[in-house]
Inverse folding.
């Protein structure tokens, strides 16, 4: 067994502090929160970001000192080659998100999520094998209705987005086996929190609900609202990713990055009403094709790798998210002209 394969089987790779980290998609919601956490940690000496700003925003990185930011695409192999030089870890978050968006344009989703992941992995291989953390999605479980979802269940994607994420997983694990590249594949479950956008057609449910509630508008619900999700606050996700980077934690199979919660959208609305202290109007529309009906993570594998986790509760995370959006809405109202349009983009 090669040293890299042996390390992967044991769950760690050799690491020396301070770490030098590249974050793809670093101007996005999760990426920018991760960058802020990494630059604040004494165990990290360098944080580089690459983002094409197709969904991320430069404003998300404002106030995070010490970042090396490159505007560019993960489909640019030459660019990736330069960025991979002298890094110890790569957190690959860059993606074309959204199930509905993938149904409208499957090829673009495949290019970004499957081909893009392949190019990141190959650039890492050519650079000598930094640890690569790959962000996948709970959507890969798709039509598999077993709950809580274990990582060893058959994947049954319901959308091109889910299929593209599954392809990225496959490439990551194949590179671990074929080239001894140290990898960790995390399946994210409905991550929410500050810096998440609500201002476009493919926004996630929590920012849509919070933004509508603060504006006094009806909350748009697709279908009956009884579909369930394992909502995960972004700080909990960032904590796992940071520890995986610092400790060089790898895994030979995908790892759910969620904590086993299960709440319906109607329950989410009720929690939001409790946070705001007032009732909220709801507007039910048609269900969306490709959406998974129910989602909940089995956290056994995650806990075995990260036994000291203490995730933020849904209630606490929702309160922090409302506070951030409320501050943002007030800054929009107070800012005239161009400042207003900029604030609305965040």
């Amino acid at each position: 067994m090669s040293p890299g394969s042996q390390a992967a089987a044991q769950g760690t790779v050799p690491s020396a502090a301070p770490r030098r980290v590249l974050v793809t998609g670093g101007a996005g919601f999760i990426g920018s929160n991760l960058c802020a956490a990494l630059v604040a940690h004494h165990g990290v000496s360098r944080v580089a970001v690459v983002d094409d700003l197709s969904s991320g925003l430069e404003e998300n990185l404002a106030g995070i000192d010490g970042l090396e930011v490159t505007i560019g695409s993960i489909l640019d192999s030459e660019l990736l080659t330069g960025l991979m030089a002298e890094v110890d870890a790569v957190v690959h978050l860059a993606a074309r998100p959204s199930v509905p968006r993938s149904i409208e344009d499957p090829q673009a989703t495949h290019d970004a999520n499957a081909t893009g992941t392949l190019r990141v992995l190959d650039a890492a291989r050519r650079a000598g094998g930094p640890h690569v953390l790959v962000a996948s999605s709970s959507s890969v479980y798709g039509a598999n209705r077993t709950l809580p979802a274990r990582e060893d269940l058959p994947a049954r994607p319901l959308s091109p987005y889910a299929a593209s994420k599954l392809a990225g997983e496959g490439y990551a694990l194949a590179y671990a086996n074929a080239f001894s590249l140290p990898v960790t594949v995390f399946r994210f479950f409905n991550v929410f929190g500050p810096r998440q956008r609500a201002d476009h057609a493919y926004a996630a449910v929590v920012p849509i609900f919070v933004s509508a509630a603060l504006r006094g508008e009806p909350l748009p619900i697709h279908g009956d609202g009884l579909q369930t999700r394992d909502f995960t606050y972004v700080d909990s996700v960032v904590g796992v990713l940071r520890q995986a980077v610092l400790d060089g934690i790898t895994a030979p199979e995908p790892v759910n990055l969620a904590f086993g919660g299960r709440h319906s959208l109607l329950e989410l609305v009720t929690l939001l009403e409790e946070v705001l202290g007032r009732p909220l109007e709801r507007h039910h529309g048609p269900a969306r094709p490709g959406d998974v009906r129910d989602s909940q993570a089995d956290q056994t594998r995650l806990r075995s790798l990260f036994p000291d986790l203490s995730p933020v509760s849904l209630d606490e995370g929702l309160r922090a998210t409302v506070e951030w959006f409320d501050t943002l809405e007030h800054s929009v109202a107070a800012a005239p002209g161009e400042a207003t349009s900029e604030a609305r983009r965040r």
In short: The two ends are 48 Å apart (CA to CA).
